Amino acid sequence: MIEYPQYFHLSEDYITTKIAEFLAEDMPGGDKTTESTIPKNPNVKAEIQAVENLIFAGEEIIPHCFGKNCTILMNKKDGDSVLARDILGVVNGPAGDVLSRERVMLNLIQRLCGIATVSRKYADLAEPYNVKILDTRKTTPGLRLFEKYAVSVGGAFNHRLNLSEGILIKDNHIAASGSVSDAIRAVHNSDGVLPVELEVDNLNQIEQALEIGVNGFLLDNMNRETILQAVSLIRHSKNGKNVFVEVSGGITFENIQQYLDTGINAISIGALTHGVINKDIRLEFIV
Q: Are residues 160 and 245 in the same domain?
């Protein structure tokens, strides 16, 4: 089987470094509006409120968003089911610090909650069948670790983080190598440590790969009937019960049911990250 690290937690250094980048992008010369309208910078209390139902992701991130002069009390934990009007957390500190940083926090947390919410919905559908829902590398540049973290928090699973973490031979690799067999042999000759997964779109490719040996197959854009044939072919091969089988390609909430009972191990869904809609969260001063 193929397993990759799961990102349930992010390091403090990573979070603070990225937040500093986002703030520098948003106010390279300071927050002119806040500096002009609130010269005395009084202390305020503000609530971070959910406007709609969601799965929360951001417990480890929000405390680093407002600076050292603010204190944050979190009311929700990562993975919690949150209802509209629930208070996610409370911020106390100088008004200027809160105002200047709220948009960066909201942009990030709204997106992560959107990812976590969609991930939970897919994961709940797949769990009774012991099928994992996997993310992909179809992430926002600069936000990959955050987005992978949100997937894990939502109850789905992380596929490889980057191109250095695992070998996934795709159609263009096969075309450039000359054949399925040539591509697999080249990998075996160059790297004997990383797991090897092969993307296939027909049974002939599977048969070729089984003769040489791979750790997993990605069945790409196959219909249910072909998937059933592919899984049977793989499972009846030598050590076939230990081969990882995932499917991908156009799988949605509406059609996922037809894939879940086919004997596969996982379904990878790029839309967990690239097609997600942000969840509505707001920050309100309490007067």
A: yes
Q: Could you say which of 31, 97, 197, 199 is catalytic?
A: 199
The question of whether 13 is a catalytic residue gets the answer no
Per the residue annotation, which of 35, 201, 220, 280 is the catalytic one?
220
Q: Is 18 a catalytic residue?
A: no
140 in a domain, yes or no? yes
Give the structural domain span for 77.
Answer: 12-123+276-285
Active site residue 220: yes
pLDDT, tens only, 112-142: 999 999 999 999 999 999 999 999 999 999 9
List, for residues 18-44, the tens digit of each pLDDT value.
Answer: 999 999 999 999 999 999 998 788 999
Domain shared by 167 and 231, yes or no: yes
Q: Is 185 a catalytic residue?
A: no
Q: 37 with 108, same domain?
A: yes
Do residue 94 and residue 197 come from a single domain?
Answer: no
CA pair distance 143, 159, nearest whole angstrom: 16
Whole-number pLDDT of residue 191: 64
The span from the CA of 127 to the CA of 1, in Å, is 18
Burial letters 62-97, b for 16+ CB under 10 A, else e: bbbbbeeebeeebebebbbebeeebebbebbbbbbb
Q: Catalytic pick from 138, 201, 207, 280?
A: 138
Q: How many domains does the chain have?
A: 2
Assigned domain for 6 exists: no
CATH number for the domain spanning 230: value is: 3.20.20.70
Neighbours of 271 (CB within 10 A): 16
Active-site residue (options: 121, 137, 144, 170): 170
Name the region of 179 (left: φ>0; alpha: ψ -120 to 50; beta: rest): beta
121 is known as an active-site residue: no
Kindly state whether residues 136 and 266 are assigned to the same domain. Answer: yes
Catalytic residue among 103, 121, 137, 144: 103
